[in-house]
DNA sequence: TTTTCATTTCGGAATCATTCCAGTTTAGTA
DNA sequence: TACTAAACTGGAATGATTCCGAAATGAAAA
C-alpha cells in the first residue's frame, strides 16, 4: 500500500503555484504521518499545533479544501460526525466499525464479496455504501448544459 | 426493481408498536411515491404539507430516524448538501452526477467495472465511494468491549 | 537585501442542517 | 368516554463548516 510522500505533496503544491507556508507544511506533515487515521479537521489542527506551529482552524479547512480540489486527498463525510479526510487515493473500501468507529482501508483486488471481506479482514459487514461520482447521460449528451450551480436534483416524477 | 409499498411500511410500523399518525402517514406517502428522488428532509416536509397535512420539520427528522433505525430506509450523507434518504434497499450503487447532482440507482448484478457502468447507464465514472459498515475484529474478538459512546477513532500510530 | 503585492492566515461572526427540549396534543386501549 | 404513553410542535441549541475584512507573509523582482 504505497502512500503519497511529503515531498510529492509539497512538490505538487509548489508546481501548481501554491505558496509553501509553515501552516501548509504542518498540515501536510500531519496528513503524511497520520493519513491512515483518516484525520478530521480538528485532529489535524491539534497535531499541527503540537509541532509548534501557529495554525488556525480556518486554515486547516482552507488547506484541506485546496488539497482536495487538487485531487491530492479526498473527503469522507459521516453522519453526525466530523468529516474525515482520506490520504490514500488507491481504490479501496473503507471498513467503518459501527462500535468503535475505526476505519480500515480494505484493498479490493482479491474479491468483492462481503463474506470474503469478513473472513479476510476479520470484519463483519452489515451495511454497505457505494457511490460512483461522475457525469450522467444528460450532462454528457446535452449541448453545454448550464448546470445551475451544482444543486442536487433528481429524476422528476 | 421492486420497491417497498405503502402498506408494507405502515404494516411494519404498526406491528412494531408505532402509532399510526397522520404525520407518519403523510411522510410514508412521500417516501413511497417519491422514493426514487432520494428526497431530503425539506423536500419531504414540503410534499407532506402539500397533501394538506400538518407536519413539522422536527417530526420529519424524527420519523426518518425511526424508519432508518427500523431498517426500512437508509440515510445518505452528502458534503455541503442536505442529507437524502434512500427508500430502495436493494444493493445498488448510487450514481451521483457531478454536474446536475442527479442520483440514479444502478443495480449491481451484471458487472462491477466502472467502464461497464459507463456503457450501460451512460454514466461516466470519475470518482468512487464505497464503504462497508459493520464490526471490526477488535469489536468482535474482545470480550464485551465498553465502546465509549460510538466515537469515531482509528488505528493508533 | 529590500521592496512589493498577491496570496495566505487569522479569528470571530454567520450559516445551516440537524438535534434537543418542554409543553401540548393525540392514537389506541380499556 | 377516559386515560396514558407516545408523538407532535416550534423555538432554541448545537456544531461542523464557511465567510469575511484586516493583518501578515512567501517569493519574485529590483
Key terms:
157 residues, 38% helix, 2 domains, Arc Repressor Mutant, subunit A, Dna Ligase, domain 1, globular, alpha+beta, DNA-binding, two-stranded antiparallel sheet, homodimer
Description:
2 copies of one chain form a homodimer. By secondary structure, chain A is of the alpha+beta class. The first copy, chain A, folds into 2 domains: 1-90, Orthogonal Bundle (Arc Repressor Mutant, subunit A), CATH 1.10.10.10; 91-142, Dna Ligase, domain 1. Chain A is 38% helix and 22% strand. The first copy, chain A, contains 6 helices and 5 strands, in the order ααααββββαβα. Chain A has a two-stranded antiparallel sheet with strand order 1-2. In chain A, α2 (22-34) crosses α3 (41-50) and α3 packs across α4. The longest helix of chain A has 13 residues, at 22-34. The radius of gyration of chain A is 18 Å and the shape is globular. Mean pLDDT of chain A is 76; it is low at 144-157. Chains A and B meet through β1, β2, β3, β4 and α5 of A and β1, β2, β3, β4 and α5 of B. β3 of chain A pairs parallel with β5 (124-135) of chain B.
Amino acid at each position: 500500500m504505497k502512500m503519497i510522500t511529503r515531498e510529492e505533496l509539497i512538490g505538487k503544491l509548489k508546481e501548481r503555484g501554491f505558496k509553501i507556508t509553515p501552516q501548509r507544511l504542518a498540515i501536510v506533515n500531519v496528513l503524511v504521518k497520520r493519513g491512515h487515521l483518516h484525520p478530521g479537521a480538528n485532529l489535524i489542527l491539534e497535531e499541527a499545533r503540537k509541532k509548534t506551529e501557529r495554525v488556525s482552524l480556518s486554515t486547516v479547512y482552507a488547506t484541506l479544501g485546496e488539497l482536495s480540489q487538487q485531487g491530492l486527498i479526498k473527503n469522507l463525510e459521516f453522519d453526525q460526525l466530523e468529516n474525515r479526510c482520506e490520504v490514500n487515493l488507491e481504490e479501496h473500501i473503507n471498513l467503518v466499525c459501527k462500535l468503535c468507529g475505526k476505519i480500515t482501508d480494505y484493498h479490493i483486488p482479491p474479491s468483492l464479496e462481503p463474506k470474503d471481506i469478513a473472513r479476510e479482514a476479520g470484519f463483519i459487514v452489515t451495511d454497505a455504501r457505494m457511490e460512483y461520482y461522475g457525469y450522467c447521460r444528460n450532462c454528457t449528451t446535452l449541448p453545454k448544459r448550464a448546470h445551475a450551480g451544482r444543486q442536487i436534483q433528481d429524476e422528476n416524477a
